[in-house]
Amino acid sequence: QECILSGIMSVNGKKVLHMDRNSYYGGESASITPLEDLYKRFNLPGTPPESMGRGRDWNVDLIPKFLMANGQLVKMLLYTEVTRYLDFKVIEGSFVYKGGKIYKVPSTEAEALASSLMGLFEKRRFRKFLVYVANFDENDPRTFEGVDPKKTTMRDVYKKFDLGQDVIDFTGHALALYRTDDYLDQPCQETINRIKLYSESLARYGKSPYLYPLYGLGELPQGFARLSAIYGGTYMLNKPIEEIVIENGKVVGVKSEGEVARCKQLICDPSYVSDRVTKVGQVIRVICILSHPIKNTNDANSCQIIIPQNQVNRKSDIYVCMISSAHNVAAQGKYIAIASTTVETADPEKEIMPALDLLEPIEPKFVSISDLFAPTDLGTESQIFISRTYDATTHFETTCDDIKDIYKRMMGSEFDFEEMKRKKNDIYGEEEQQ
């Protein structure tokens, strides 16, 4: 979030100084290379075995996420032209867990008809539902068919199309990508928009709605850091933060190595301001290195698997993101699968077992349990704007919502992609005239 905001703020004509106490870009969401560093980071004894290939061939994400092809982050990348610095690959398939087995989430009509996720009559009803969603336009009441987007619950919409529990599970969790079932009793508008986002993203590339950058997610913050630099932003890595200097309740600077950098506004993640955030939960993530593709995924070299909470008697879904040497993030013939979920009990490792069972045999695995923080200080007075910790979702939509929220609190106006495009044209346009 911080790197994207430093890029956006630089384009907006603000003077930006970006400091990071780490030696790499991206803080919590970095990609770690070489593999030796991952062993060190998780305090695993010894060094990686020779079978792991060259340490330099590895770029392991600490926080796994994919990009929705038609989602907000891709829009931010396109509008800021950060896409120049990145290459993306489509993730080969999305799978959903049902009754102990995994099934491909159908990505075409032909796949849907052939899929054993639903019976024949169920398929017809589901198809009607998808056609309804595709035609749904919140600005055109003729497309509502008696549904009030702001009042009718999603549960009632499913009833209207007579969809069974299995289809509801798969639609809410694998298409609308909800982590829990709370959405069922909320107005249906957001769910319909989420399913539209999924199908529009899928329509762009056909295999799945997800994209992933070559060389790992660490490329994203670096791309936005470059954008910031083009617009005069300054970046300092390895810069210890000693103190955030506050006068009369308002931030006036940041002290580092005895010097104070003065500022009017400050953006940071929760780890820098523990007294201004509150813990809202925990996420467990397990990074697994495999020498084989995941069983029953048709040997895909990348995929996502969603285990809906209902299937394993939980409140939150469990996710698996898998990528491989095809994405320049692992040595030849190796695969990285990262399982994650929201912690619900005192034994998080047991909670994530259904995912790990799908991945066996696992070579080394790296387990992390992270606290989730949300700001208690929204920055109105202090002008300190704090991002939220990355949640368990497997794409960047909630992260982008947070970026837009911080932008609005800082600038007092909504973040507008078109506006950003115009500002960029102004700057580049002037250069051409000289």
UniProtKB/TrEMBL annotation:
Bilayer topology term: Peripheral membrane protein
Domain of life: Eukaryota
Compartments, record wording: Cytoplasm; Golgi apparatus, trans-Golgi network; Membrane
Record-level GO BP terms: protein transport; small GTPase-mediated signal transduction; vesicle-mediated transport
One cellular-component annotation, GO: membrane
Entry's family note: Belongs to the Rab GDI family.
Subunit structure: Interacts with RHOH. Interacts with the GDP-bound inactive forms of RAB3A, RAB3B, RAB3C, RAB5A, RAB5B, RAB5C, RAB8A, RAB8B, RAB10, RAB12, RAB35, and RAB43; binds RAB3D to a lesser extent. Interacts with DZIP1; this interaction negatively regulates the interaction of GDI2 with GDP-bound RAB8A.
This protein's name: Rab GDP dissociation inhibitor
Annotated organism of origin: Opisthocomus hoazin (Hoatzin)
